[in-house]
Each structure stands twice: as C-alpha cells, then as structure tokens.
Design a protein that fits this description.
CATH topology of one domain: TIM Barrel
Shape: globular
Strand content: 5-15%
Distance between the termini: 50 Å
Strand order of the largest sheet: 1-2-3-4-5-6-7-8
Bound molecules: zinc ion
CATH architecture of one domain: Alpha-Beta Barrel
Structural class: alpha/beta
Length: 364
C-alpha cells in the first residue's frame, strides 16, 4: 500500500511538472511576425534560402529565375516597382529647389566618377541633415534628392496607366501582385505647378474652405489618395487577381499615416525609420497603423514598415542589430504581426539575420 502510494505520488510528481510546463511554454511563447514583406529580391539560391529562413513571405521578382526561387522557397512573388509618371517634374519653391540641387549634386561635373559623386553628395546630405524622405520636425526642410513627376498634371493619368501597362505586360507569369513606391511629393508637402495650384484653388472653392495652409494640405493629401486609388483601380481592372503592396514614401508631412485612406491591399506605413526614432513613437505609430487600417476600406491591411541600413559610413543612417531588435520587440508589443522591411538585402546580413530569425516565423 505504502509502495502504491509512493508510486502514485511519484507519478503525480512527474506528471504535474509536465502538465505545468506545457501551460507555461504556451503562455510564454513569444509573439512572432507571421507575414514579412521584403524590398529585396531572391537573386540566387542562397539568398532565397536565407530569406525563407528568416520568415520572408512576400517579395519582388524581376525575372523568371527570381520568380522560380521565390516559389521554390514558399514566398509570394510580386512585380514592379511602380513609381509616378507625369509630363514634368514637380515644382517646388526656389529655396526647396536649391536644397534639392545641392544634395543631389546638380552642380558637379558630369565626368566625375560615381564613387566620387556619392562621396560628395553623402557629405552634403549629412551637412543638411537629410533624412531620405523620413519624417522631420515641423519646419525643417528635407527635399528629396531624386525627382518625382507631377502625377496630378498627368491628364486622365494616361502616362501613369501606360507605365503600369508596361510593368503588367512584362511581369513574369504567375506573380501575384505589384509593388508601389515613391508616390508622394519631393518636398513632402505638395507640388506648386500651375495645374496643381489651379486644382487646389478649385478644391478650396468647391468645399468653401478658406485659403489656409491646413486646407491646402487637405488638397494635397486628397490628390495623393486619388492617385493611389486610381492606380490601384487600374491594376485591378487589368488583373483582378492582383494584390497591391506599397510603402508610403517620401513622408507626407502634414499627415504621415494617411495610408489607410488608400485602397492598398498591403499598405506599408513607416513606424520605424532608418534614422532611429524613440521607441514610444514606434509603438504609437504601430498602434495607429493597425487600429485604423480598415477605417476606409475593408480589404486594406496596415503593415508596419521598418527601415534598415546595415552599411556604416553612409549618409543614410546605420542601424545596429540591437536597435533593430528593440524596434521589432516594440512593434510586436504594440500588436504588429506583419512587417515590411527595406533594405531587403540587409535583412540577411550577419547579426540582422539572427534578429529576424528570432522574431519572424521560420521556414517550415
Ligand atoms: Zn503639379
């Protein structure tokens, strides 16, 4: 009897921790990202395998070879990237244009080598505090170094539709969607060409709004949203099965998280820029992106975007694996379970690879 009791006690002692540890491990299982959109491309077998190992699920492909690698490693392939078209470059103030010309090295001799040009323009970007299209403090100028066409002056968006035709017609058969990028304003607030100014005036008159900066911001936001949605409608008219993925960039400063107003299926909104933001901002932005994703369109998903540059000594800020890890933890704590990252190729570099592997669902 005593023996039986001892055996029973021993069995209980053995099974309880087993049951208990089962509960604990379930409770303590840390949340992970189950869908990861990458701005890289699976250029070869090793790169494709590494992307799959860190949980990348959605990626851009530009050839049959990269398409096949994406499929082989279980990633959803997209074509693109679509950027705005228009009859001319956006018009800015004289001061903004000067800034653009300076940081993009318009005055530098054409015969300068690429490396030398980059060395000089990098120095100028640092000197001016250029943030590469990320959010700046109010009133701080941050004009893009690259040119963006005035999409609003594109009559019936005919040039943009032709550009989309070219991308869709040359897409590798089998891709599931398209990447959008760079749809915004060079000066992060608006274009001041005759067409945009006239349209803005008309907008204010129709809505009976006084001509204030806040109301002009409303026009420029509406012009952006209208363009996004017209381009998405056009893609779907030609390819109803396609999904549209976008990163909203450069930032539209008057309303950085306006993306939920667009019909973008997977709308990447910046919650952590390349230049590290305070973690409470990362958390606040993630919360907004997720909570308000479906305010306007039921199909829209808000995807937290994280900027990453592993290279040191460039004008674009270097991010350490430690900072990246803190940001991913913050996004997860704020409820994010999907993620979008650029630069894609930096995700698989030593140190960063391990961080993504820790927080993203691994290859099955
Ligand atoms: Zn314009």
């Amino acid at each position: 009897m005593k023996f039986a009791k001892t055996v029973l006690a021993a069995m209980a002692a053995l099974s309880l921790p087993v049951l208990f540890s089962g509960c604990v491990s379930k409770q303590q299982e840390s949340p992970r990202f189950h869908r990861v959109f990458c701005w890289g491309t699976p250029g070869n077998e090793e790169v494709a395998r590494k992307y799959a190992q860190i949980g990348v699920t959605d990626i851009r492909v530009g050839s049959k070879k990269t398409y096949e690698l994406a499929v082989k490693y279980g990633m959803t392939p997209y074509c693109g990237v679509f950027t705005p078209a228009g009859p001319y470059t956006q018009v800015m103030t004289e001061e903004e244009k000067k800034y653009h010309d300076y940081i993009s090295g318009q005055d530098l001799p054409k015969k300068l080598s690429r490396a030398e040009r980059t060395r000089i323009t990098d120095k100028r970007c640092i000197e001016k505090g250029f943030l590469f299209g990320g959010e700046t403090e109010k009133g701080v100028m941050n004009v893009m170094a690259h040119k963006i066409a005035c999409f609003n002056s594109d009559e019936n968006y005919s040039l943009s539709k032709k550009k989309l035709d070219r991308i869709l017609d040359s897409a590798v058969p089998g891709v599931k969607g398209i990447y959008f990028d760079g749809i915004s304003y060079m000066n992060q607030r608006g274009c001041f060409c005759a067409k945009c100014l006239a349209d803005c005036k008309k907008f204010l008159a129709e809505k009976k709004l006084p001509d204030t900066q806040e109301n002009r911001d409303l026009f420029y936001r509406e012009a952006l949203v209208k363009y996004y949605n017209a381009m998405i409608d056009y893609v779907k008219s030609k390819r109803p099965d396609f999904k549209v993925m976008a990163h909203l960039w450069p930032v539209f400063r008057p309303d950085p998280l306006f993306g939920n107003r667009t019909k973008t299926d997977y709308c990447g909104q910046t919650v952590a820029w390349y230049f590290p933001w305070p973690l409470d901002k990362v958390s606040r932005y993630t919360d907004f992106v997720l909570k308000h994703a479906k305010d306007h369109y039921a199909n829209a998903e808000g995807i937290p975007f994280v900027g990453l540059n592993a290279a040191k000594g460039q004008a674009l800020s270097h991010k350490t694996p430690e900072q990246l890890e803190k940001e991913l933890q913050t996004v997860l704590a704020a409820g994010g379970r999907t993620l979008m990252v650029c630069n894609g190729h930096d995700m698989i570099k030593p140190g960063y690879f391990e961080v993504f592997r820790k927080y993203c669902t691994k290859e099955k």
